[in-house]
Amino acid sequence: MKVILANPRGFCAGVNMAIECLEEVIRIFGSNIYVYHEIVHNKHVVNRFTEQGVVFVDSVSDVPENSILVFSAHGVSPVIRQQARDRNIRTIDATCPLVTKVHTEAIKYANAGYNIILIGHEGHDEVIGTMGEAPESITLIETPEEVAALEFSEDDKLAYLTQTTLSVDEAGRVIESLTKKYPGIESPPKADICYATTNRQEAVSELAQQVDLVLVLGSQNSSNSKRLMEIGKSAKKQAYLIDGVNELLPEWLEECEAILITAGASAPEVVVQELVQHLEDHYQAEVENAVVREESVRFPLPKELRILQSK
Question: Would residue 189 count as lying in a domain?
Fold first, then answer.
């Protein structure tokens, strides 16, 4: 059996920054630390921090006054920030800078009187945070069919933004429908879908042609991980999203000569290596590293945390 390891895979710069941020908060403050939603959408990462005493909450009201509250990589709305201030909670913002970019764009377009069409998945943490920046100005859509139902006129001031973790092809189809219906619609000078999402999707698209099975390491609530699985399926391959080797089913490997393994942007490398070790031990797998694109992006820790480190 041949195993191809997709590169790039796993942690992106935003996830690395958020995890490093929370680790530093633990080191500096010790205990009484809370995180609004999951720091990143991965079960293994969340469980590791839970074991260290971190409490993940879905409401600011669950955070005691004078505690430390970290905002996750997916960002939060201004309402959440105000709720924290009202409760005298000290906050540290681990929002991915690429998500912050979309928030900034939403504010800019809203202040300029635009109706903003946000392409994304309803209920996703990132989408909730972005819509919270200008709720009266943003309309959320997900498919080309929803474009057809929009009731704006060609004379309306329109702009579109996208969730950072969408499938490039998926978003492209919606954008094509939007620009066809509204030729004058505006968009940011640089695309919102993040570099890491694009690179991981490109790697799966290219390498899936060489295998019988695509295994994506990541949690079920990880949007970018789901997109990788969908790309594998669109290549007419078996494709599964699993959290770790314990979810691997032997029947998937029957008559399987080549497997592509990748990992979503919030999945730790340790789960990849555990899966590879299992395939080497039980299926005599021969492993090949396939590099489709190099990555060197790194984001600094939040300013407030860098100040604390210097003291």
Answer: no
Number of domains in the chain: 3
72 is in an annotated binding site: no
Same-domain check for residues 130 and 92: no
* Choice among 24, 105, 126, 170 that is catalytic: 126
- Residue spans of the chain under pLDDT 50: none
Q: What is the pTM of this model?
A: 0.94
Q: Whole domain around residue 21: which residue ranges?
A: 13-96+299-310
- Same-domain status, 72 and 154: no
DSSP SS3 for 292: coil
pLDDT at 286: 97
pLDDT digits (tens, 9 = 90+) for 126-163: 999 999 999 999 999 999 999 999 999 989 999 999 99
Does 74 show up as a binding residue in the annotation? yes
For 28-47, write each residue's pLDDT tens digit. Answer: 999 889 999 999 999 999 99
Consult the annotation and say whether 234 binds a ligand.
Answer: no
Give all strands of the β-sheet with 33-36 in edge-to-edge order: 55-57, 33-36, 68-71, 90-93
- CATH code of the domain in which 71 resides: 3.40.50.11270
- Confirm whether 288 is a catalytic residue: no
DSSP 62: G
At 16 the pLDDT is 97
Which residue shows structure tokens 């079920």?
220
CATH number for the domain including 164?
A: 3.40.1010.20
